């Protein structure tokens, strides 16, 4: 397929959905006060497991949590962008500090789960009492994950996940290009792992964007910011179409052929450009 050389890796909270799923569930189920009381006393990931215990003891059922998750805000253009990128042959993966139960419930609700080949996150499952248990992606009670970045929480370094994905991609014949999308502090470490020729799409005005602006020289990937669902779709498809056209040029150069490459990709469902904003702008360099 046209986009078989492209791997798109998404953060989940505030990237695919337009809220933080942990906060969304706690707030919607009226447990914000307790959450804020306990937050200074334990790591976020352990607190979410504790909150699920509290909610369960108050009689809140797993079905109630699922109902709340299905109401979480998601931009319709993002749903369409994910479906189109998958249909084009991009390999889509998630790297998130939420949990499998929250993510799978939301993706299934929108018919998106089958679009993803991997969901890397904290394990979440329902125990025999019907209580949702949430465990760390990396068990930090046994050992540190070893990453020293202050922006990586103890339960998950997304940079280590990206390195594992890169190692498995390097075993394949076809050279792969990575596009990474995220908004949070935890998305900075994986951004640093991207190479020349890869792309990072930080959400403008969010913590990872600030960090990238301040440490521009550390980032090898090309930076293409986005703000909302429409820009998410426009920028993503502009990049996909650019990567396909570069791949085609390289292939024809290798074969010594002189025919011109059709960069328009007429068969692609490219979004209609609504002005200069529709195309990714390189971030201005901030010193
Ligand atoms: Mg996020
Ligand atoms: Zn890290």
TrEMBL record:
Keywords from the named record: Hydrolase, Magnesium, Metal-binding
Entry's Gene Ontology molecular function annotations: metal ion binding; phosphatase activity
NCBIfam families: DKMTPPase-SF, HAD-SF-IB
Residues reported in the UniProt entry to bind substrate: 22, 97
Active site: 11 (nucleophile), 13 (proton donor)
InterPro entries, per the entry: HAD-like_sf, HAD_hydro_PyrdxlP_Pase-like, HAD_sf, Pase_PHOSPHO-typ
Protein name: Phosphatase
Keyword set includes Metal-binding: yes
Residue sites binding Mg(2+) per the record: 11, 13, 183
Cofactor(s) recorded in Swiss-Prot or TrEMBL: Mg(2+)
């Amino acid at each position: 397929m046209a986009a078989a050389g492209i791997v798109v890796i998404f953060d989940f909270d505030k990237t695919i959905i337009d809220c933080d799923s942990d906060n969304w569930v706690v707030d919607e189920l009226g447990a914000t006060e307790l959450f804020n009381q306990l937050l200074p006393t334990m790591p976020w990931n352990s607190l979410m497991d504790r909150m699920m215990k509290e909610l369960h003891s108050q009689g809140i059922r797993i079905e109630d949590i699922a109902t709340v998750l299905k109401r979480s805000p998601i931009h319709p253009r993002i749903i369409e962008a994910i479906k189109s990128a998958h249909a084009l042959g991009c390999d889509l993966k998630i790297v998130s500090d939420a949990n499998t139960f929250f993510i799978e419930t939301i993706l299934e609700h929108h018919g998106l789960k089958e679009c993803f080949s991997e969901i890397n996150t904290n394990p979440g499952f329902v125990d025999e009492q019907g209580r949702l248990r949430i465990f760390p992606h990396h068990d930090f009670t046994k050992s540190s994950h070893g990453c020293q970045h202050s922006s990586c929480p103890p339960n998950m370094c997304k940079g280590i996940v990206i390195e594992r994905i890169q190692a498995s991609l390097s075993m394949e014949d076809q050279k792969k290009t990575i596009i990474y999308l995220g908004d949070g502090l935890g998305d900075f470490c994986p951004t640093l792992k991207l190479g020349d020729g890869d792309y990072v799409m930080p959400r403008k005005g969010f913590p990872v964007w600030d960090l990238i602006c301040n440490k521009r020289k550390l980032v090898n990937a090309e930076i293409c910011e986005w703000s909302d669902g429409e820009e998410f779709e426009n920028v993503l498809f502009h990049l996909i179409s650019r990567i396909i056209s570069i791949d085609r040029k390289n292939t024809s150069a290798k074969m010594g052929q002189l025919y011109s490459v059709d960069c328009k990709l007429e068969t692609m469902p490219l979004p209609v450009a609504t002005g200069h904003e529709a195309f990714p702008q390189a971030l201005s360099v901030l010193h």
